[in-house]
Amino acid sequence: MQELLDKMTHALEALWTPAAFVQVLLLVAIGALTIWIGRRVRKTAQARALEQQLGIAGRIGEGLIIISPHSVALVLIAAVLGMLNVLHRPTDLTILALKLAGLLLLIRVAVYVLRVSVGNYAPLKGWGTTISLIVWAALSLHVLGWLDAVAAAFDSIGIAAGGARFSLWSVIKLLVTVTTFVLVAAWLARWIEQRLMSLSAVAINMRIGLAKFVQAFLVGLSILLGLNAAGLDLTALTVLTGAIGLGLGFGLQAIAANFVSGFVLLMDRSIKPGDVISLSGLSGGNAEHFGWVQELRGRYVVVRDRDGVETLVPNQHLITNPVINWSYADPRVRLHLPVRISYNSDPEKALPLLEEAAKCNRRILCEPKPVARLMTFGDSGLELELRFWISDPQEGVYNVRSDVNRAIWQLFKENGIAMPVAQREVVLHMSEPIRDARHETRDGSERKA
Q: Is the domain 331-449 a CATH 3.30.70.100 member?
């Protein structure tokens, strides 16, 4: 700690000179100007268009926007250095600032390349600036020669627990080491996932399952390796891991069940991206909660309906509840359309009209051909049913039913087939009221008639 204080005192004394003060003012002005330029560049329409552009051109444009303020700072510091040399003024602080600005530029480029290579959903996205500043601060201490003094100062702050001692420096080193290992594992898992997803000969469920397994395995392994590399004895974590396992058993049952169910769905190939499913409802045309499987995630499945609403369905729900998969083995499905006609209408004439209404729709298959059946004699009329097949349930079910119903209505009107309205007949039976055989006398006593 004393060594760090001595270095800080010496640095402050070196800054307390007119020449150093002028350099500090110029560097502060360059820093403020750089921040202002960076914010102005990011708010331009061209910068927003480049950030939203896909492909290599979009990534290069986004990278240029990110490093533009650092590049401007480097150029301005170099210009100030040249001006001071021309004026024969001291340039020690300006040279140091030039080194640190160049170092920050290189770190920012490296972090951005790492983030792009890992992918859009990587932990690095949105943390590029923070990670760059942390790495730059550590390397800057090394360039200034302060790293050993800072490490010794942080190492002097700690607590002793039993036979072990935990210092602030050991905690920082542990976090940095584990984070580095996890980032490398995430980059490697992303690279393996891209290679697996390009294997068209392997089923999509198998590819997703292997990718998720590799990602979980590599991240878990990287954490253990990071802890070991930081010098932490893993045998000391026996009690902690036991407590975590107990917590998973009691407090995180649903989360663990969803993760296990996700791997089961991937392995048994019962549901895969692109499938058309109904989360509830009856078979035979009822399409309640009807939608497409967009993604299979570790904890949930993304289902998008025809209204554009994406529902996150827990994996356990798909395992423990009945789910209609309209495209499990064969995309063709049969729909049932009930129709009621009056007893005054001829069913032998109505049945062919139902089949004709189905043939007018282009989405209804000709083979198997539509059929119409007389199902039962109902209370209000004859119960008929039209059955037909479609091969594209992902295009919707209710729209086909609506089109066929409209065709049936038109054909029935043209051919005199009546559709009854449910009626109820209520019969009232009137009868004479029953009179009491007794009545009162004038004096209030009762007597029989």
A: yes
